[in-house]
Amino acid sequence: MGEQGHGGARRAVQTWESLFRAQVTIMRRLQSDPVWDGVTLREYDVLFSLTKGPDEGMRLRDLNELILLSQPSLSRMVDRLASRGLVERRSAPDDARGTVVRLTPAGAQVQRSVGRAHARAIATYVGGALDDDELATLQDLLERLRAAQASIPDVAPPAASEAGEDAPGA
User: Fold this and answer.
1) Residue 155 burial by Cβ neighbours in a 10 Å radius (0-12, 13-18, 19+)
2) What is the pLDDT of residues 96-152, one digit of tens each?
3) What local confidence, expressed as pLDDT, does residue 107 receive?
4) Residue 25: enclosing H or E segment and its boundaries?
5) Strands in 19-112 per DSSP E
6) Whole-angstrom Cα distance, residue 103 to residue 87?
7) Residue 85: what are its φ and ψ, rounded to 5°?
8) Which residues are CB-contacts of 39 (< 8 A; sequence separation ≥ 6)?
């Protein structure tokens, strides 16, 4: 895959806009669902992400890579979840400056309970729009898109002569 011409760039921007708008539309529905039993969608995201890590917990910096929050915001959220007994935080055994976060039994229970209801909502909103073959194709495409990012160079700042040109999607 190389550089794309102007038409390819326009198609990439249009595709991104469609993906982003679909995600926003579905996220708004998910946020308004009555499934959030004592946790917010963002708090659930932290609890869910912790289930993907090792049993002994995840370093805060590793958890931060999975969450769409700044590190200070995530740290404050972890503090709130810890004060409610849903997670525990402790110093990393190999580096006292690092923090390890893990689910408590109560946090795991909340995650499972909310997760089941959340999964049903996702199945309704996403599965209600696409058949199994379309879901598999979309999943494959999105995984390819995510995985490719590590090998795609960052965009260089525009040259002075390009700064005034209209960009696709601008």
Assistant:
1) exposed
2) 788 899 999 999 999 999 999 999 999 999 999 999 999 999 999 999 999 999 999
3) 96
4) helix 6-32
5) 58-59, 87-92, 95-103
6) 4
7) 80, 15
8) 47, 86, 110, 114
